[in-house]
Amino acid sequence: MTRRPTPARPRRICAKCDRTESYKGLCSMHLREANQAAGAPGPVAKRQLTEDEVREIRRLSAEGVNRWDLAFKYDVAPGTITAIKSRRAWADID
Ligand SMILES: [Zn+2]
Fold this sequence. Notes:
Elements: H1 28-37, H2 51-62, H3 67-74, H4 78-85
Helix pairs in contact: 3-4
The structure holds zinc ion (ZN).
Residues 14, 16-17, 19, 26-27, 29-30 line the site of zinc ion (ZN).
């Protein structure tokens, strides 16, 4: 069986940031986020947010801050931001 030579792979950059592409045009971080957004199972770091952070997330998202930016800032999954916005999470915090 003859192996084809592997074509030289140019270094490419993530579509969402300046890090080196890992797979499918995304860096490892954004690839993980994309997988989480698609509902892929995987270890999702459960980070406990403080009440102040939850209020800040709601305030910033109401001002139009992108949930991806908030997810990155607070080190949570984008889905967590959505859950906070829609009060599926931290519903007891006003
Ligand atoms: Zn990236």
